[in-house]
Amino acid sequence: MAETLNIFQLIGQEKTRQYWSTLIQSGRFGHAHILSGNSGVGKDALAFNIAATLNCKSSQDKPCGACRSCQQLKNLEHPSLKLIFALPRRSASQTDPYSGIKETEMDLINAELFKKMTWPYYHLQIDGANDIRIAAIRQLRKDIYLGNDMGSTKVVIILRAHKMNVEAANALLKILEEPPPKTIFLLTTEFSDRLPDTIRSRCAMHHIPDLAWELIRDDLVHKKGLDQVQAEICARMAHGDLAAAHTFAEQDNTFWLDRIRATLNTLAKEDFVSVHRQTLLLKDKELENDETRQQFLSLLILFFRDVAMDSKPGDTALWVAQVQQLKKLFPECDYHSAVQAIERTKDALERKVHLQLALTALFFELRKHLRGQST
Ligand SMILES: [Zn+2]
Predict the structure, then answer these.
(1) 212 C-alpha to ligand 1 centroid (Å)
(2) Which residue has the higher pLDDT, 2 or 91?
(3) Which CATH number applies to 14-207?
(4) pLDDT band of 121, cuts 50, 70, 90
(5) How many Å lie between the centroid of ligand 1 and the Cα of residue 4?
(6) How far is the CA of 89 from the centre of ligand 1 (A)?
(7) Torsion angle, CA of 282/245/75/149, rounded to 10 degrees?
(8) Quick check: pTM over 0.70?
(9) Per-domain boundaries in the chain
């Protein structure tokens, strides 16, 4: 039997899927929904599944994954699907979000969409795509008020909806206030609190819970062919983020463990110059993009947690040796404050603060926590 509400490789989330399946069958649900939850829990995959279910032509077990409508949805090219996401600003056009985007850049955007279609956990990486602007919403407005093909439900999915700027959010609000018939809006976001209250009050809120690391581990073993120990390190490091776990799985963990070792050794030294040098090295050579920065900090968090809890993933000698080294070097370490400091830095980096300043501040704070000098 087909899995409930799943033609998009959703991992776990059985309760959420069951909930939506029942909700859709009942036919009694509002036209606007916010699907919020941490990165990599499957919000977009869930939204695609909902869109497919609403339009599936099968008489049972929707979405079937096989009918024409499901096939079109799987290719993200269903005429009733309106997918909105941040695009680079290449012109001042207020009506066409693609205005000024060159053909070569369009090819790259399509390649990103293809990755998303193949695996909905994938984070679109489009250069300069910092916000969702009014042009995107104006174009949406034009599209959705056009005649509807009878029987189908238009589904507007706004990916990372918190990226809407104020103008775009206001324009969307107007649409939500007078929604066209047979149209539903699904806004996915990791930061629902960054959406204006006016939008939130028009939407039903749904929280998508974190994934257990065991589910992520099993997925890495099956899909990435990792051995149990490597899969476990990647899964735990990802803190419930399947997309991040897959990225970790594609990289050499040894490399990252070396970075952690170098950083801890630096923090163990008394001189401030080496701390400064280490932040420069990380900034210029090793933490070249957002993902690697988050990855480095995630690993650092996992590391402090494992030292604090005296736990070890599997029995990788390398990891255990590192944990023991930290314990020996810093018997007074305040692990809790250290983890909090790293989490604050992770959050700050999401908001594009200056990398070197953030790292320097973090390392000096960690130096204190390592020595148990928190106050
Ligand atoms: Zn179908």
Answers:
(1) 29
(2) 91
(3) 3.40.50.300
(4) very high
(5) 13
(6) 36
(7) -100
(8) yes
(9) 14-207, 251-370
